[in-house]
TrEMBL record:
<dbReference type="InterPro" id="IPR014445">
    <property type="entry name" value="Gln-dep_NAD_synthase"/>
</dbReference>
<comment type="similarity">
    <text>In the C-terminal section; belongs to the NAD synthetase family.</text>
</comment>
<dbReference type="Pfam" id="PF00795">
    <property type="entry name" value="CN_hydrolase"/>
</dbReference>
<feature type="binding site">
    <location>
        <position position="605"/>
    </location>
    <ligand>
        <name>deamido-NAD(+)</name>
    </ligand>
</feature>
<keyword id="KW-0436">Ligase</keyword>
<keyword id="KW-0520">NAD</keyword>
<feature type="domain" description="CN hydrolase">
    <location>
        <begin position="6"/>
        <end position="268"/>
    </location>
</feature>
<feature type="active site" description="Proton acceptor; for glutaminase activity">
    <location>
        <position position="46"/>
    </location>
</feature>
<dbReference type="InterPro" id="IPR022310">
    <property type="entry name" value="NAD/GMP_synthase"/>
</dbReference>
<dbReference type="GO" id="GO:0008795">
    <property type="term" value="F:NAD+ synthase activity"/>
</dbReference>
<keyword id="KW-0547">Nucleotide-binding</keyword>
<feature type="active site" description="Nucleophile; for glutaminase activity">
    <location>
        <position position="168"/>
    </location>
</feature>
<dbReference type="GO" id="GO:0005524">
    <property type="term" value="F:ATP binding"/>
</dbReference>
<comment type="function">
    <text>Catalyzes the ATP-dependent amidation of deamido-NAD to form NAD. Uses L-glutamine as a nitrogen source.</text>
</comment>
<feature type="binding site">
    <location>
        <position position="442"/>
    </location>
    <ligand>
        <name>deamido-NAD(+)</name>
    </ligand>
</feature>
<dbReference type="Pfam" id="PF02540">
    <property type="entry name" value="NAD_synthase"/>
</dbReference>
<feature type="binding site">
    <location>
        <begin position="356"/>
        <end position="363"/>
    </location>
    <ligand>
        <name>ATP</name>
    </ligand>
</feature>
Length: 648
């Protein structure tokens, strides 16, 4: 495996019904193509060696013998390959015939799995020809003079990777064989299928595959028969899916008159992490598995040195994947924030809320959430006390945007300058204001928080926090300054998502045309704490991303580190793929080191952070999701990053 990925394929060859030699020739061609592309495991459709629509010919010994000869030919002609090949064929044991999947690799037939559930309703009549797996009496099948292990409780294992197989109807049942095999340890389930085309069926099938991969915390690879099958009563056009924990990674287009193959990579390490951190999955393992009930058959994955780059899209923004749902996700994220704040305001009986408004992204989103919450609760917007507090570093643009934003939303607007108070504070503590160090910067943040807290007391209202998830991860907030509030609505929203949500609200003109123009201006403003003096022209001189690095990189690191538990070397590998052409590897490594250094050293700020809603897979709340001592060493992580330098 390369960084925990296994490259898999689902292939749909042309077939000729009952022409076994032709069929294995087509299968062989796709195996060779898969070998060239670095595929490690490939599955073909149900009964692909004979064809699915043979009807009563299945009961003819000649066809069964032809299928065996064809399988042996396939094994011989693919002996030089390393791909684990899964094909479908009928297997006779005594007086019974089984619809089976056969696994072979490097010329050796490893094992066979009989179909557990036979459809015998509507257009399907499999019980006419085949026996179900429960009727199997023997543990081996004779194929070409070889004793081949056979059974429905079978896993194929290579080191830490386990593969399970089920066949078509098996996946449509309430407790699927694939589910059972997943509980026994299979991280990838392969399904050999013969699913005919019906209007609306493909949509249902897609959701079923997505659901099974999510429910079983596994990868799922599905291949169904295609052109060449009989259309006497049914139509088969070939379809295939590759899914991973609820996400469809690849889907084969239908109604294409050609042989096809889809390839992707299943992330075994992500699956293992999800299972390890999901106690209900492990409790199900205890409830539904027994020792000695499983047969394990070894196979070999390609070695690390032979591995290919992965064949799947790596999202630059995993919080907002590019799958056409950005607007839907932005609205959902915003609505979660509104719902959370509404519950808090109702519980404490507040009719006012206090916020600091800088004219930047975070405070803008927090204000919009608060306004939407007041509208939802039927409270007047005048109850929102929005305060802009220009200081030693405030730019003309952000101050103007802040004032315009508050005016257009119809909230109670306060402007309270903090420059004089900060200078007085410097004098009291003996700090030279010409020294623009952390004292100079944090004094402003704490002065603003003091004003907000005192106004909150005056109005018997909570201070609504504005800091976001990315700032919490990096510790890019002033302790007991903007770090503190009574409820932090942005605590689960990363900086890149804040930008997307605000841009979405501007695009949809949810708060009016005039406000949309202001929101667009805010989105386009450089991200800055504005704690250093502005230029003579009143422009921003301090840009956050120049100091701590691009937020899109930090959000990428954060999601993959906390969401999937990846090690630095894997995150680096994925980041290089995701940001190829935008950031050089050395820059990615440099900012990754900053991320880990700051993440570990700033935990003390997160251990006392205010309440706030979780809105995605990743959260840093010390009460629910992330618990870590404040004095954990980052040395091991930083050492691995240093070792990545050779890859740059």
């Amino acid at each position: 495996m390369k960084h925990g990925f296994v490259k898999v394929a689902a292939a749909v060859p042309f077939v000729r019904v009952a022409d076994c030699i032709y069929n294995v020739e087509r299968i062989e061609a796709q195996v060779l193509e898969a070998q060239e592309k670095g595929v490690e495991i490939i599955t073909f459709p149900e009964l692909c060696i004979t064809g699915y629509t043979c009807g009563d010919l299945f009961l003819k010994p000649f066809l069964i013998n032809q299928a065996q000869k064809a399988l042996l030919q396939l094994a011989e002609r693919t002996a030089h390959t390393s791909v684990l090949i899964i094909v479908g064929m009928p297997i006779q044991i005594g007086s019974q015939l089984f619809n089976a999947a056969v696994a072979l690799q490097s010329g050796k037939i490893l094992g066979a799995i009989p179909k557990t559930y036979l459809p015998n309703y509507r257009e399907f009549q499999e019980a006419r020809w085949f026996a179900p797996a429960r009727d199997l009496q023997l543990a081996t099948a004779q194929i070409g003079g070889f004793d081949v292990p056979i059974g429905h409780n079978v896993l194929f294992r290579s080191g830490g990777v386990a593969v399970g197989i089920e066949i078509c109807e098996d996946m449509w049942t309430p407790y699927t064989p694939g589910t059972r095999l997943a509980l026994y340890g299979a991280q990838i389930i392969f399904n050999l299928s013969a699913s005919n085309e019906l209007v609306g069926k493909n949509t249902y099938l897609r959701s079923l595959i997505s659901g099974l991969s999510s429910q079983n915390l596994c990868g799922y690879v599905y291949a169904s028969v295609g052109y060449g099958e009989s259309t006497t009563d049914t139509v088969f056009t070939g379809k295939a899916f590759i899914a991973e924990v609820g996400k469809i990674l690849e889907e084969m287009p239908r109604f294409v008159h050609e042989e096809r193959m889809i390839i992707s990579d299943i992330d075994i390490s992500r699956i293992d992490y999800d299972r390890m951190s999901t106690n209900s999955f492990n409790e199900s393992v205890s409830d539904h598995t027994e020792r000695g009930k499983l047969m394990e058959i070894p196979f070999k994955l390609r070695s690390q040195e032979q591995s290919y780059d992965i064949d799947r899209k790596i999202e630059r923004n995993p919080f907002f994947p590019c799958n056409g749902t950005e607007d839907e996700r932005a609205e959902e994220m915003f609505d979660i924030q509104v719902c959370a704040l509404a519950q808090r305001l109702q519980f404490i009986g507040a009719r006012h809320a206090v916020l600091g408004i800088s004219g930047g992204l975070d405070s803008t989103l927090a204000l919009l959430v608060t306004v939407a919450t007041f509208d939802f609760l039927g409270l007047p917007r005048e109850g929102i006390i929005a305060v802009t507090m220009p200081g030693l570093g405030t730019s003309n643009r952000t101050k103007s945007n802040a004032v315009r934003l508050m005016e257009l939303l119809g909230v109670t607007t306060r402007t309270i300058g903090i420059t004089e108070a900060c200078l007085q504070h410097f004098a009291v503590i003996g700090h030279d204001p010409k020294v623009q160090d952390v004292v100079y910067e944090n004094t402003q943040a704490r002065e603003r928080t003091q004003i907000l807290m005192d106004l909150a007391n005056r109005y018997n209202a909570p201070v609504v926090g504005t800091g976001d998830l990315s700032e919490l991860a990096l510790g890019w907030c002033t302790y007991n300054g903007d770090h503190m509030s009574m409820y932090s609505v942005n605590a689960g929203v990363p900086k890149t998502a804040v930008q997307i949500v605000v841009r979405y609200l501007a695009k949809t003109r949810r708060f009016g045309d005039a406000l949309s123009e202001v929101l667009h201006s805010i989105v386009e403003t450089p991200i800055s704490p504005e704690l250093k003096p502005a230029s003579d022209a009143g422009e921003i001189t301090q840009e956050t991303e120049a100091l701590v690095g691009p937020y899109e990189l930090h959000d990428f690191f954060l999601y993959n580190f906390l969401g999937y538990g990846y090690e630095p070397s894997k995150i680096f590998y994925l980041a290089r793929m995701a940001f190829e052409g935008k950031y050089e590897p050395e820059m990615i490594r440099r900012w990754m080191k900053v991320f880990y250094s700051r993440f570990f050293s700033q935990q003390y700020k997160r251990n006392c952070m205010p309440d706030g809603p979780k809105v995605s897979r990743v959260s840093l709340s010390p009460r629910g999701v992330w618990r870590m001592p404040s004095d954990v060493s980052a040395r091991a992580w930083l050492t691995e990053i240093d070792q990545l330098q050779a890859d740059c």
